[in-house]
Amino acid sequence: MSLKIILLLVLIMTKLFGSEIQREYVVSVTLYGKIGSASYKEVKNGKNYGLFLNAKPTSFIRAVSGIKKVQYKSIGHIAPDGRYIPVFFSELTLKRHEKKQISYFCNAEKMSITKKTHIEKKVLSIDVKHLFSKKRQYHTEIEDKSKEIDYADNDYLTLMKNISLFKKGEIKYMDQKKTNKLYLISKEKNFYKIKVAKKKKKYFIALKTDCYGLLEAETYKSFKFGNAYIKTVNTSVK
């Protein structure tokens, strides 16, 4: 079970014009029960916004996947029609011996995106003097790379912030793989259905919202382990 599923479930669609909104979610799968939790925060300052999402697996999922937590950040401005336009987006994944940060610098006017990847890995040192040591010795290897990618209007977090403005059909998003497709198949008041299609599989997500944003979500026709669920457990508005 990838933590990407937690992100896909936390499709925030908040329309409240407060300065700060925070929500806590619990995520579960039919067979396993609770698999993790996620916290979301939205901050507005005039026409500028900040969206923050932190996802953490349970100890069992952490042991299986090696992932300790994933953090997402989107910063940008709000257009007159209410559309969220990202200027900067980042994804930070922390594993037991690895830290990976992917940052996207967006320019809507030039329709360009620069993707920068920074990876830090702790690698076991192979040194004769440490062969008989009870304590393992590690050193850090660093990798940095940068490239230009195809422009897209939305990152993972603004994707569903803007869903009310989308027409039914395919939705494009930042750094999208050619084998991954996302479709809005139905939209009604406070209820949306989304189809996620990958190379050899597909599944659907049903979303229910309230005036603060996502209230609950459920996947269906998805995993051999059962459907995944997300529910709100706490809401704070400042």
UniProtKB/TrEMBL annotation:
Protein name per Swiss-Prot or TrEMBL: DUF3108 domain-containing protein
Organism: Sulfurimonas autotrophica (strain ATCC BAA-671 / DSM 16294 / JCM 11897 / OK10)
Classification lineage: Bacteria, Pseudomonadati, Campylobacterota, Epsilonproteobacteria, Campylobacterales
